[in-house]
Amino acid sequence: MILFQNIWGTQSYVNRFEIVITGSNANLLSTELSTYLTGRYLLFHIFPFSYSEYLGFHHLERNKQSYIAYLKHGGMPETYFLHDLETKKNYYQNLRDAILLKDIVRRYQVRDVYLLEKLVMFIIDSVGSYLSVNKIVNHMKSNNYKATHETIGAYLKYLKDSYFIHESERYDIKGKKILTGERKYYLN
Q1: If both were cysteines, with which of 8, 50, 66, 108 could 60 make a disulfide (CB 3.0 to 4.6 Å apart)?
Q2: What distance in Å separates the CA atoms of residue 30 and residue 174, rounded to the nearest whole number?
Q3: Is residue 20 scored above 60 in pLDDT?
Q4: Nearest CA to 171 among 182, 160, 185, 161?
Q5: Of residues 103 and 11, which shows the higher confidence score?
Q6: Is the pLDDT of residue 142 over 90?
Q7: How far is CA 133 from CA 46, 81, 120, 184, in A?
Q8: Could you tell me if 91 and 78 are in contact, meaning their C-beta atoms sit under 8 angstroms apart?
Q9: What's this model's pTM, rounded to 2 decimal places?
């Protein structure tokens, strides 16, 4: 990474430029980026389209047919330019593989890639259900996969840090606090 303040004479003109850094977090997480750019950056997390954004982008009406299309094709803007279902399916598979293999396996040196893939499939199958590390470990063990609480906890953290999944914690309205234990996980 080039540090402009280390180049003599740049102070007088560097403020005239806007530098945008974008991409996957395979090499640098946003928390690490902030270390290098302290006080000189704005961080934007860009997520796939929500249903409302999808409707606006595709100029569609809010109805059952457009909702089914959203669920079927997803909210990634790139898929607008992919016209057949097989190509869209390949796009999502490649995106999934890139996140799992580059952003997670390589970065965190995951040794049990098969377990990570099984965890992802379990989360996909359980979207919207309450899950806990204990519940996931028990499921994995009942299906003859070797899994520890530490490994599953670490893998969940990696999936969250790479923005593959989003965690929704339970909230106690009366006690006004976040409950520990079970959470819901959603794909980003």
Answers
A1: 66
A2: 34
A3: yes
A4: 182
A5: 103
A6: yes
A7: 28, 39, 13, 11
A8: yes
A9: 0.76
Question: At residue 115, what is the residue type?
Answer: L
**Tokens read off for 90:** 């390949």
DSSP the chain: ---GGGSTTGGGTGGG------S-SSS--HHHHHHHTTTS-------PPPHHHHHHHHT--SSHHHHHHHHHH-S-GGGGG--SHHHHHHHHHHHHHIIIIIIIIIHHT-S-HHHHHHHHHHHHHTTTS-B-HHHHHHHHHHTT----HHHHHHHHHHHHHTTSEEEEEEEETTTTEEEEEEEEEEE-
Domain with CATH 1.10.10.10 in the chain: 113-188
CATH of 113-188, one of 1.10.10.10, 3.40.50.10540, 3.40.50.11240, 1.10.760.10: 1.10.10.10
147-150, long-range: CB within 8 Å, 24+ apart, which pairs?
A: 147/115
Q: What are phi and psi of 128, to 5 degrees?
A: 90, -10
Cβ-Cβ contacts under 8 Å for 17 (sequence gap 6 or more): none
